[in-house]
Design goal:
heterodimer; A: globular; B: two-stranded antiparallel sheet; rod-shaped
Chain lengths: ~150, ~350
């Protein structure tokens, strides 16, 4: 069984700490790889830049993607991940602050699997992270590793 | 004028004809005399003339025939001269009229060109304005998106780390310290709600309206179901009339009902026998209006004008939580539909909100 890792694309240190804390308090102990912007996320996924030579057979089970990101934003990351045969089937959950209709629409248009708004209330935030983890890491059947 | 000219022409023609006739007669008479002397009796010709349906048989001497021919030719010449003069006058008249027409056509063409140019300028101006508006709208969208992201993110950190303090350092904080942190968290929640409400208020004017027939009864029932799910403890009797239909934007009208029914639910929360009624009645101007009535806290009619202002509240947040944006949103949506919204109520006796949609 492959190691179920989570790729967290988050530029805000506070949000990163709160998300990791929420995983911890909910006893979700999967490996979490944190990248700080869209460019780093793409480097990780395609084994380029700082991640050159990474074993590309090890893809994250789940990508938690913020939309407002430096350099390359979440929409662009989505499009490029969906355009590449190595990553097009990876489950991507938008985990972001806004739920402006226009952004939700664009995110789904760009091919996200789910859109979750980070609640301001920390208890709700904890619950949201717990439910996400439960569903995507346990209940959801991931795409096969290779065709 | 024309008759006078014609008469002048005729006179000249007749004089000419006379002169020709006289000259010709003299000449021919000379010839005849010479012939008579040379060959005895004069040469004659038979001439048949059909005049006004009568056939005349004339035996004319050659010289008389010559005179007649010359006479006829003279008349024809005179007529031709006359015709030429009349035709010339006519042509000059037609030319004058043509010149006038050309001038008018020219003027008309100039006017038309001017209209075309003005239209083009107008179109350019409209296009420029539209571009400006689109830019302004885009900027507003970007602003709202930024507000939505950037104002909420720090709030989550404030709430999240206050919560972390409460949990991780529970035994290091006395009761007062814990209460302070709880207050920080409560204020954060209010701020988050306020941001959401303001964004939803601005969305009312930002989004395009799609008019269709909207089943208000169905939407109201869905909203009440949601309210019951959020607040299962509330014992509220809700009566919604059948067949409430309006022409408008379904999403926006849903927002109206969410606000009005949500308010009714909130302000009856302290009533032991809460009751909310939604239906239609005759409005202020005689046109049909929809109403949402409750038997809750009500309000003082003296402050009725303040109900629909942004951030205006008639109750303290400790009695009934709220941001004071909901009714402002309702009013904005109803005004966008060309309708009216107003309220009646009294303290402790409940409130009724009326709205029309056209």
């Amino acid at each position: 069984m492959r190691d179920k890792t989570i790729l967290l694309v988050e530029d805000n240190q506070d949000d990163e700490d709160l998300t990791l804390r929420a995983f911890k308090t909910n006893n979700i102990s999967n490996r979490i790889i944190v990248v700080r912007d869209g460019a780093e996320a793409l480097d990780y996924l395609f084994g380029e830049g700082a991640y050159a030579g990474r074993d590309l057979s090890m893809m994250p089970t789940l990508i938690l993607l913020d939309l407002n990101l430096p350099k390359i934003d979440g929409f662009e990351v989505l499009k490029r991940v969906r355009a590449d045969s190595r990553t097009r089937r990876l489950p991507i959950i938008i985990l972001t602050t806004s739920h402006e209709q226009e952004e939700v629409f664009r995110a789904y248009e760009s091919g996200c699997n789910s859109y979750v708004r980070k609640p301001v209330d920390s208890a709700q935030f904890r619950d949201a992270v717990r439910d996400l983890g439960l569903f995507w890491l346990i209940h959801n059947v991931p795409p096969p590793e290779s065709e | 004028m024309q008759t006078k000219r014609f008469a002048g022409g005729l006179r000249i023609a007749l004089v000419l004809a006379g002169i020709f006739l006289a000259l010709a007669s003299g000449y021919l008479a000379g010839i005849r005399e010479a012939q008579m002397k040379a060959s005895g009796p004069a040469l004659t010709r038979d001439l048949t003339i059909v005049l006004f349906g009568q056939t005349l048989h004339l035996r004319l001497s050659l010289s008389a025939l010559g005179v007649t021919i010359i006479f006829v030719l003279t008349i024809l010449l005179a007529a031709a001269v006359l015709f030429a003069r009349v035709a010339h006058r006519r042509r000059r008249q037609v030319e004058a009229v043509n010149r006038k027409l050309m001038r008018e056509i020219g003027e008309r063409k100039r006017a038309q060109d001017e209209v075309i140019q003005l239209n083009a300028e107008l179109e350019q101006r409209v296009a420029a304005r539209t571009r400006e508006l689109q830019t302004a709208n885009k900027e507003l969208e970007a602003f709202c998106s930024s507000v939505s992201h950037d104002l909420r993110a720090p709030l989550r950190a404030i709430d999240g780390f206050s919560d972390a303090l409460l949990k991780d350092y529970h035994d290091k904080l006395d009761e007062q310290g814990q209460q302070h942190l709880q207050r920080v968290r409560n204020a954060t929640q209010r701020m988050a709600q306020l941001i959401d409400d303001l964004l939803s208020l601005s969305r009312v004017t930002r989004t395009e309206m799609r008019r269709e027939e909207v089943n208000l009864t169905a939407i109201a029932r869905e909203v009440v179901t949601e309210l019951r799910q959020i607040d299962p403890g509330g014992n509220v009797e809700v009566i919604i009339s059948e067949g409430l239909v309006a022409q408008g934007d379904a999403r926006l009208l849903r927002q109206v009902l969410e606000n009005l029914l949500g308010n009714a639910w909130k302000y009856t929360s302290k009533q032991p026998a809460a009751r909310i009624v939604m239906g239609t009645c005759k409005g202020r101007n005689g046109k049909p209006a929809f109403f949402v009535q409750d038997n809750g806290a009500g309000f003082d009619m003296a402050y009725a004008s303040k109900l629909f202002g942004v951030f205006q509240r008639l109750h303290s947040a400790s009695d009934f939580p709220g941001t004071g944006v909901g009714l402002a949103t309702v009013q904005r949506i109803i005004h966008r539909h060309g309708g009216e919204v107003w309220a009646e109520g009294s303290v402790g006796q409940g409130a009724t909100f009326y709205f029309t949609v056209y």
